[in-house]
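Quick one: structure for this chain?
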Amino acid sequence: MSNVKIILPAILLVGLASPAFADDDNCTDVSPASWLSKEQILVKARDLGFDPRRVKVEGSCYEVYALDGKGRRVEAMFDPASGKLVRIKDKS
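Got it. Here's what it folds into:
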């Protein structure tokens, strides 16, 4: 019975945290057929002052690994349908 007291709260915590992790990779509900190309996203990143090194699809986002205007490594997440910058993570 004491194992249940430990395991149940752990399961509940994981369940509560999972939506937060899922949101990190959810930028759009639009079908991938309607997304901008990786090249178009790279242009958007450059227009915002990033020096992009690599772009990949992560969930329903484009993830651009780049250097920002100060030379710091960043991970920039873009909505692939609109090209809008969704968030930036400092990777320095």
